[in-house]
Structures are given as structure tokens and as C-alpha cells.
């Protein structure tokens, strides 16, 4: 080397090499000059011939965890005097899919005025990601067979700026997380429905031949909801009573719904007659 004791050649995306290119590379790395180091990077190790891999030291790199990315972004924001909500950093970390580079690039794109605080809602609108509570509400409505709540929640998400494809991904991931939680806690009542939600929305994202629209998300949700209508019993009615859904329905027909709700309790439900 003209300068320094070593010369390093970095070959990125080496899995794109042709067969003849790999043959030429093999001749070089079998007996490299003592001052030469080859560094080869790939995301598809299975495409690299064994003759090449057997002559290399394999150093795997794994995606950074959400906590690692969030902490690193926090350190950057402190050192650069960037005002940003901690939850906003968490959303960026989630959206970067384990890539520290993508996370830092996204943070850089969000900094318009260093004196302005970057809010969580700003990040959600910029990335098309919606609030996790709203995703939970969508899944809850699907699981409990509440068609109107399903449509209302999905439309609210879209109106809040959610990108349909990302919304479908979030629903699939949240349903999968709830499924794993149910498995770990032996709650087999929701295995089937959560598995259906996760698989249907995963397939929607993976197999869609066109841009996913909000109507695709609604149809997928309703197709599951219709086949998962809950058994109406006093326990189910008490649940609707406590969370205000019955009051909301009654309000369309009578002005005294609120007084009924706060002064009465559901006692029995037989032959479509509710006793309070």
C-alpha cells in the first residue's frame, strides 16, 4: 500500500456476484497478499458458495433491539438539543425495524425546527403509524364481534392519518402479540380468533397485488367478526353496560338512557328480555 500497512477491500451485496465472479474472487482469497483484507457484506448468506464461506470468518450482525435504538436516539436528542417526547422516540424505534441507521435518518427528517418539540402524534402522522390503543380497540371489537365498533375504529385510524398497509401490519403484529400472551397464560378461549386475525392481515400485506385500501381492512375485519358473534348472556350484557355501549345505543331512542344506566344494574336476560 502507498499509505498504511494494510489495504482493505469492502465488497457490499456480494450475493449479487455471478458464478464467474465468485470463481475469480476465490483465487484471490485463497492466497491473499499479507497486506490485503477482504470484507464481504451480505444479507443473503445462503447465496454465497460454500467455497467462499469456508475461507472466511463469519461475523453475524443482528437487528438492534427497540430499547437500544430508543436509548441511542435519546442520547442523540440530548446531545443535539432536540426536544422530542420519549414516546415519540419509541414510535421511531418501532418503525425502524431494528435498523439504527434508518432510525437516525427518520429522526433527522422530523427535526424541522430544533426549538419545536416533536410530539408522538407528529411521528405517527409522518410515518402513517397509529396509536397502539386504537389498534387494541380494533382487535377488541373484532374479537367480541362488534361490527359497528370495528368499522368506526378503522375509519378513525384512517382519518387520523394511518396508512392502510401499515395499519394492516400493526393489526397483524398486535394480534400475534396477544396470541403469544394467551398461549403463555393458557387462555385458550381466544386462540382461534387471534390466530385468524394475525394470519388474515399478514396474508393481506404479503399477498396483495395492489395498494391496500381502507375498505380491504374493513372487509377482512368484518369477515372475521361476522363468524365470531358472541353468545348474548347476562355476562356479555354487563360488559356492554359497564363500558357504555348500551347507553350509547339507548340514547338514540330515549333521553332517559343515562338515568337508567346510573340507577340500574342488569340482572337477567331471557328470551330477549333484559331485567334491570
Verbal overview:
With 276 residues, the protein is mainly α. Helix content is 57%, strand content 6%. It is elongated and about 90 Å long.
Explain briefly what this protein structure is.
With 276 residues, the chain is mostly helical. The protein has helices at 19-30, 50-53, 66-79, 86-95, 100-110, 120-127, 132-143, 147-159, 164-184, 191-207, 214-226, 234-242, 245-250, 257-263; strands at 7-11, 36-40, 268-270, 273-275.
Notable features of this structure?
276 residues; mainly alpha; two-stranded antiparallel sheet; 14 helices; 57% helix; elongated
Q: Output the radius of gyration.
A: 27 Å
Provide the spatial order of strands within the biggest beta sheet: 1-2
Number of helices: 14
Can you summarize the main beta sheet?
Answer: 2 strands, parallel
Order of helices and strands, N to C?
EHEHHHHHHHHHHHHHEE
What structural category do the secondary elements indicate?
Answer: mainly alpha
**Terminal Cα separation, in Å?**
90 Å
The average pLDDT value, as a whole number, equals 84
Any low-confidence stretches, pLDDT <50, length ≥5? none
Amino acid at each position: 500500500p502507498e499509505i498504511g500497512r494494510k489495504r482493505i477491500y469492502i465488497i457490499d451485496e456480494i450475493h449479487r456476484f455471478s458464478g464467474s465472479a465468485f470463481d475469480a474472487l476465490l483465487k484471490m482469497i485463497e492466497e491473499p497478499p499479507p497486506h490485503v483484507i477482504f470484507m464481504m457484506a451480505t444479507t443473503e448468506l445462503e447465496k454465497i458458495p460454500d467455497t467462499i464461506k469456508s475461507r472466511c470468518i463469519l461475523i453475524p450482525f443482528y437487528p438492534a433491539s427497540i430499547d437500544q435504538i430508543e436509548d441511542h436516539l435519546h442520547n442523540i436528542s440530548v446531545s443535539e438539543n432536540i426536544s422530542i417526547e420519549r414516546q415519540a422516540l419509541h414510535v421511531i424505534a418501532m418503525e425502524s425495524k431494528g435498523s439504527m441507521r434508518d432510525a437516525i435518518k427518520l429522526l433527522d427528517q422530523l427535526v424541522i425546527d430544533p426549538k419545536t418539540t416533536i410530539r408522538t402524534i407528529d411521528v405517527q402522522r409522518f410515518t402513517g403509524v397509529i396509536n397502539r390503543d386504537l389498534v387494541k380497540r380494533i382487535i377488541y371489537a373484532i374479537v367480541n364481534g362488534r361490527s359497528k365498533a370495528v368499522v368506526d375504529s378503522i375509519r378513525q385510524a384512517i382519518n387520523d392519518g394511518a396508512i392502510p398497509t401499515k395499519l394492516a401490519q400493526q393489526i397483524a403484529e398486535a394480534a400475534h402479540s396477544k396470541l403469544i400472551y394467551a398461549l403463555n397464560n393458557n387462555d385458550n378461549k381466544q386462540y382461534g380468533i387471534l390466530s385468524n386475525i394475525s394470519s388474515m392481515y399478514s396474508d393481506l400485506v404479503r399477498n396483495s397485488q395492489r395498494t391496500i385500501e381502507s375498505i380491504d381492512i374493513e372487509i377482512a375485519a368484518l369477515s372475521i367478526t361476522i363468524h365470531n358473534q358472541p353468545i348474548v348472556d347476562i355476562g356479555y350484557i354487563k360488559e356492554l353496560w359497564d363500558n357504555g355501549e348500551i347507553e350509547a345505543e339507548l340514547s338514540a331512542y330515549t333521553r332517559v338512557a343515562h338515568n337508567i344506566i346510573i340507577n340500574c344494574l342488569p340482572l337477567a336476560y331471557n328470551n330477549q328480555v333484559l331485567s334491570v
